[in-house]
Design goal:
alpha+beta; single chain; four-stranded mixed beta sheet; 290 residues; transferase; Glutathione S-transferase Yfyf (Class Pi), Chain A, domain 2; Glutaredoxin; 11% strand; Glutathione S-transferase
Length: 290
């Protein structure tokens, strides 16, 4: 049996990103239900997930509804101890849980001034002092986590875990708004932007619906600071190297071109999410490299 997960717009819903990563980054099967924010879609969808009011919301295979990303993380960790959602070492796990809890409840100035938007990056957003204070606090606890757990890789408490999931939208905010942080924090942000699951989420977020006006800002724009996508483009027709979509094995209806080669997909979304970041999709890259 499979879990169900309600999410909002991938480009903008920071809590949805956390919920999704708790499944996809740890290999737990889930069935997605997506609703567009600032419409009736989300409240209508959540009528069948009573008493939830927000995304993400999980429903277990037995039917129990679990709102709130921190509760989802703990429930999945207890049900799937082999997935490594929290660090195995008790002391590292304690640190990770402390940081995730602070993230869940705090950093309101940063959240308010810099809402998550994965479709753009700005040169400057004139962060007020309250946002700078939040950034200073982030760097204090990130440095403390590494020192307390002896982490030497890119993540806070050793291997990638739920604490990194909880800070993923913060990393995107730093990237989107070009917020001032020190070298270790910049490296941590870069690790998030390059994480395979995050790259897939952002690629889908680039193409799954029109821009949301609420998130538009009039700051000068710069290129996205994450990995540069391969230069794919949509083309007309159905002629392609592959006879079936690399994801569904259904017949080709939409095609992209990359390096003068044509690759087909079963619908516009499959093509467009691949075009947004071809290297984010292992099934496509296996076809491309064949």
């Amino acid at each position: 049996m499979t879990y169900d997960l309600v999410i909002g717009d991938r480009a903008y819903s920071s809590w949805s990103l956390r919920g999704w990563l708790l499944f996809y980054a740890f290999g737990i099967p889930v069935r997605l239900h997506r609703a567009r924010l600032y419409t009736n879609e989300l409240p209508n969808l959540l009528k069948s997930f009573h008493p939830a009011r927000t995304a993400p919301t999980m429903r277990t295979p037995a039917g129990t509804v679990v709102p709130e990303s921190l509760a989802i993380a703990e429930e999945l960790a207890s049900r799937h101890p082999e997935a490594g959602i929290w660090p195995a070492d008790p002391e590292a796990r304690a640190v990770a849980r402390a940081l995730a809890a602070e993230m869940h409840a705090g950093f309101t100035a940063l959240r308010s001034h810099c809402p998550m938007n994965l479709r753009v990056s700005y040169t400057d957003c004139a962060p007020p002092q309250a946002v700078l204070d939040d950034l200073a606090r982030l760097q204090v606890i990130w440095d403390w986590a590494r020192a307390a757990t002896g982490a030497t890789g890119p993540w806070l408490c050793g291997a990638y875990s739920a604490v990194d999931v909880f800070f993923a939208p913060v990393a995107t905010r730093i990237a989107t708004y070009n917020l001032p942080v020190d070298g270790p924090a910049r490296a941590y942000v870069a690790a998030h932007l390059a994480h395979p699951s995050f790259r897939r989420w952002r690629a889908m977020g680039m193409v799954d619906g029109p821009d949301q006006a609420f998130y538009r800002r009039d700051y000068p724009i710069r290129p996205w600071p994450g990995p540069v996508p391969l230069p794919a483009r949509a083309v007309d027709g159905t002629a392609s190297e592959d006879a079936a979509c690399p994801y569904s094995s259904d017949p080709v209806t939409h095609v992209l071109e990359l390096d003068g080669r044509r690759f087909g997909f079963c619908n516009a979304f499959c093509r467009d999410k691949t075009m947004a970041d071809p290297e984010a999709w292992p099934a496509f890259m296996a076809l491309y490299r064949s």
